[in-house]
Amino acid sequence: IDEADSDEITVKCAKHILWLYGDDAGECMKMSETTFCNIDFSGWNLNSAEFENSYFVNCNFKNTELNFATMKDCVFENCNFEHATIEESNLANSSFTNCTLQMAVFTHCDLENSTIQNCQLRSANFLKKKKKKMNKQSCSDDEISEKANYVSKSKYDFSKYGDRPEEDLSIEEN
Questions:
Q1: What is the pTM of this model?
Q2: Distance (Å, rounded) from C-alpha 80 to C-alpha 58?
Q3: Close Cβ partners of 128 (under 8 Å, ≥ 6 residues apart)
Q4: Sequence-ordered list of residues with C-beta below 8 angstroms from that of 151, at least 6 positions apart, any chain
Q5: From CA 144, how far away is CA 116, in angstroms rounded?
Q6: How many other CB atoms are found less than 10 A from the CB of residue 48?
């Protein structure tokens, strides 16, 4: 697995933006089997980017657009996805550990066999077309405002909600 260089990623992000706008100088960001350490993706438009079988540690995705992106078989550790928009993306078989997902929006994403563990979920939104198996374990979600249809099959720790966690969560399926 290769390790990504911060300057290289900045150039690839800029070329990706050109590609999104149809500029001949641009190219879609496609990276696989790469380790991303301390990379700042914040604010970038990474719609339709492709990351597969990669490892992200201490990366910042705050305010990043990742719509229609492919990020399957990826591991995210200690990453910040605060206010990120992730719609219609493929995150199958990925894991999020110790990440901040506060106010992130995951709409109609493929999260099959994905795991969210020890993450901050306050005001995160998960809207899904079909039920898929996804696990959420030991996540912090003070004042949670989550819309998730995966809850019934998850390994989420609902102990702080009492006997009927569904009363504290808004579960929505489109």
A1: 0.78
A2: 8
A3: 108, 109, 111, 148, 149, 150, 173, 174
A4: 165, 166, 169, 171
A5: 15
A6: 19
Over residues 17-29, mean pLDDT:
96
Q: How far apart are CA 106 and CA 69, in angstroms?
A: 12
Query: Which among 139, 140, 9, 143 is positioned nearest to 64, based on CA atoms?
Result: 9
Measured between alpha carbons, how far is 127 from 137 in angstroms, rounded to an integer?
A: 18
Per-residue confidence (pLDDT) for residue 134, from 0 to 100: 60
Q: Read off the tokens for 65.
A: 């657009």
Rounded to whole angstroms, the Cα distance separating 135 from 126 reads: 13
Instruction: Provide CB contacts within 8 A for 145, sequence distance 6+.
Output: 122, 123, 125, 170
Lookup: tokens for 28: 């879609």
Burial class, 51, CB count within 10 angstroms (exposed 0-12 / middle 13-18 / buried 19+):
buried
- Geometric angle at alpha carbon 104, from 99 and 107, rounded to 5°: 120
Instruction: Provide mean pLDDT across the span 113-120.
Output: 92
pLDDT at position 138: 56
The pLDDT confidence band at residue 34, using thresholds 50, 70 and 90, is very high
Q: Which residue has the higher pLDDT, 137 or 89?
A: 89
